[in-house]
Amino acid sequence: MNQCPTKRYSEQITTVGEQIVAAAQKNGVQLKGTTPSAVRAWPPDPTLQLAPVLIEADADFEPVFKFIDALYRIDGVLSVESLDLTGDPKKGGKLKMRLTISVLVKSQQTGGARWAS
């Protein structure tokens, strides 16, 4: 049987990153950066791996929660692992947001080969 090859990790995480940018723009969040971390095994399904992504942004109070809601609509986003909100009066009442999300990505079907970059 001929199967479609699984996209490389870099392609999968780039797609998620683009969707994070779109969610930020749509919800009035000023995105400062997204940083994917090394993947780790996801025991419930050996064909998947978990990729943490750190997101840093500035936003007013209400857009923060609209943005988080939008993140859960991105294919592969499993959960928000951590959320840190701090206020800075110098930024006109905006909150500084740091959160880490867990993203499920498909493992490459190459007999246990490590992720390609």
Key attributes of the depicted protein:
117 residues, alpha+beta, 5-stranded antiparallel beta sheet, 2 helices, disordered C terminus
Secondary structure: elements and pairs:
Blueprint: H1 9-26, E1 30-36, E2 40-41, E3 48-59, H2 61-71, E4 77-87, E5 95-106
Antiparallel strand pairs: 1-3, 2-3, 3-5, 4-5
Q: What is the rounded Rg?
A: 16 Å
Q: Secondary-structure element sequence?
A: HEEEHEE
In percent, how helical is the residue content? 10-25%
Beta-strand residue fraction: 35-45%
Overall residue-averaged pLDDT value: 86
Return the structural class: alpha+beta
Note the gap between the termini.
27 Å
State the helix count. 2
- Which runs of at least 5 residues are low in confidence (pLDDT < 50)? 110-117
Shape: elongated
Largest sheet: 5 strands, antiparallel
Number of strand segments: 5
Protein model, in words:
The structure is a single chain. With 117 residues, the protein is of the alpha+beta class. Helices cover 25% and strands 38% of the residues. The protein has two helices and five strands. It has helices spanning 9-26, 61-71; strands at 30-36, 40-41, 48-59, 77-87, 95-106. Strands 1, 2, 3, 4 and 5 form a five-stranded antiparallel sheet that branches. The longest helix has 18 residues, at 9-26. The model is unreliable at 110-117 (pLDDT under 50).
